[in-house]
Amino acid sequence: MRDTSHALIVIDVQNDFCPGGALAVAEGDVIIPRINALMDDFAVKVLTQDWHPADHASFAANHDGAEPFSLTEMPYGPQVLWPTHCVQGTDGAAFHKDLRTDPADLIIRKGFRPAIDSYSAFFENDHRTPTGLEGYLKTRGVTDLTLVGLATDFCVAYSAIDAAKLGFAVTVLEGTCRAIDLDGSLAAARDNMHAAGVRLEA
Ligand code: VGL
Ligand code: ZN
Questions:
Q1: Closest residue (by CA) to atom 1 of ligand 1?
Q2: N or C: which end of the chain has fewer CB within 10 A?
Q3: What's residue 63's pLDDT?
Q4: Phi, psi of 187 (to 5 degrees)
Q5: Which protein residues touch ligand 1 with a CB less than 6 Å away?
Q6: Contact between residue 34 and residue 99 where contact means Cβ atoms under 8 Å apart
Q7: Ligand 1: which of 50, 95, 131, 180 to mutate, judged by most atoms within 8 Å of the beta carbon?
Q8: CA distances from 61 to 58, 83, 90 (A)
């Protein structure tokens, strides 16, 4: 067991990101037994949950004529328009039934503001509006983070890069993540994580 300076952050292991879900990530469910086992190795465990209102601006369905997976410009920068996913209170937004949730110290929800998406567990996509997770971890004395979950190239990468910028020592266990990989997004995310000083481990 690692000491209380080291937290496991489990990103978005929800039905909509698993096979059969609205924004399914290939093999998204394969990582769940590994995540469940890892929970026993960490004193501090946080789960994140993508949690959108039905009128969320990241949904293609809320933009006239827009195709899912197309790109648009938001006031805060470019934004992929996604299939409707992880709508608050729906089965798609629930954690996968096989994920252990009882050991979690904190479940943090993100993406609940209708006008702005939030890939990162630390900041919304404007890179300024905090979720509060930084304060939670720092006031508990956490300095090191291990990230796992879905999806490698979006919520995991954005969270890892923000965490590194905030001064945490960050490791992403790539074998315990799965990617969406949209137009080279996985390669770009890996480069960006490297550049930010994130350690990528198998
Ligand atoms: C995610 C796209 C949209 C993720 C969340 O969890 O990686 N990706 N919302
Ligand atoms: Zn989302």
A1: 155
A2: C
A3: 98
A4: -60, -40
A5: 12, 17, 50, 82, 119, 150-151, 154-155
A6: no
A7: 50
A8: 9, 7, 17
pTM for this one?
Answer: 0.98
Active site residue 12: yes
Write down the catalytic residue from 18, 86, 155, 177. Answer: 155
Please provide residue 192's backbone torsions phi and psi, each rounded to the nearest 5 degrees.
-65, -35
Distance separating alpha carbons of residues 194 and 200, to the nearest angstrom = 8
Q: CB atoms < 10 A from the CB of 30, how many?
A: 14
What is the pLDDT, as a whole number, of residue 32?
99
- Return the bridge partners of 135, or none: none
Mean pLDDT of 66-82: 97
| Closest among 41, 39, 14, 38 to 178, alpha carbons compared | 14
Whether the bond between 151 and the residue before it is cis, its omega within 30 degrees of 0, is yes
pLDDT tens by residue, 143-187: 999 999 999 999 999 999 999 999 999 999 999 999 999 999 999
Residue 185, C-beta contacts closer than 8 angstroms, at least 6 positions apart:
153, 154, 179
Phi, psi at 123, each rounded to 5°: -135, 150
Structure tokens at 11: 């990103």
Among residues 18, 29, 86, 110, which one is catalytic? 110
Residue 60 CA to ligand 1 center (angstroms) comes to 14
Cβ atoms of 72 and 12 closer than 8 Å: no
